[in-house]
Amino acid sequence: MRIAHLAPFVVTGTLPVRPFTDRFVGTVTADGGTAHVSAIACDGTGAIILLSLIGSDTTCGAAFAILSKDAPLTFTPAADLAWSAPGQLHRPAGGMRLHKAMLTGTYRRTSYHVLGLANTANIAFGLTHPPVVAPAPTPAPNEALPAPPATATTSDAAQPRYLLGNLAEGVPHPLALLGHLRALRIIFLPEWVDALWEQAGIAGLITTAPALGICAWRISDSRERWNTLLSHGVTQGWLASGASGAVAA
After folding, report:
1. pLDDT tens digits, residue range 67-118?
2. What Å distances lie between residue 242 and 50, 179, 192, 231, CA to CA?
3. In a domain, 14, yes or no
4. What contacts 218, CB < 8 A, 6 or more positions away?
5. Is 181 left (phi over 0), alpha (psi -120 to 50) or beta?
6. Total structural domains in the chain?
């Protein structure tokens, strides 16, 4: 979904991002048990960006075991919540990591909080796994450089990044947005964050992702489109030019 207006334009989200609110947003069933979903985000195909489960160790473990086998996991949203993505969830193509913690003081039996986070939503993973940039073609001796294609080839659908924020805030933390851009090897100034949030939303480089209990956004990994936006911003004056404070790719 394209964001025509990312409001507010000031990126004032806070850390940490808490994948839970004052209620559960749905359930998943595995190994004969049911785990409550405190937060969920995925792409339009049902590939998980974030899945936060509360339940027994056995049920939560069985749910993520299903995903590890590339089998679908059925998500049932709460009756009063609208879910715009498929109910059949699957493991993200780029892999995911699990984080597990025991919840103390739970009634009758011990419950666990198990969080699955896609690598494409993990800034640290993105920084250590930079995008693959195809080398420019080298012409043979006395051969002219090939003409550029009419439409630039991008990796837009290959490995987008995902940005997360707290539900009540509706915007991410500024360093989270800039961290993903740095992982994509985009050159920017930190003070550009508000303008980039607004203009990238208008240009479709940042779009909302289906989520409950949390906010999630898809960040295009097309370096060509990002660099074009930055160039236009400096030329048109909505980005202040300057060399100090730049973050290099």
Report:
1. 999 999 999 999 999 999 999 999 999 999 999 999 877 655 678 999 999 9
2. 37, 20, 11, 13
3. no
4. 43, 160, 161, 162, 163, 206, 207, 208, 209
5. alpha
6. 1
pLDDT at 138: 63
Please give the structure tokens belonging to residue 14.
């806070």
Rounded to an integer, what distance in angstroms lies between the CA atom of residue 61 and that of residue 114?
8
Q: What value does the CA radius of gyration of the chain take, rounded to a whole number of Å? A: 20
**Which pTM value belongs to this model?**
0.84
Burial bucket for residue 152 (CB in 10 Å: 0-12, 13-18, 19+): exposed
87 lies in some domain: yes
Tokens in use for 1? 């979904």
Residues 160-171: tens digit of each pLDDT: 999 999 999 999
Do the domain assignments include residue 221? no
> Residue 145: inside a domain, yes or no?
no
Structure tokens at 171: 């915007």
Structure tokens at 128: 């250590």
Structural domain for 59, as ranges? 26-121
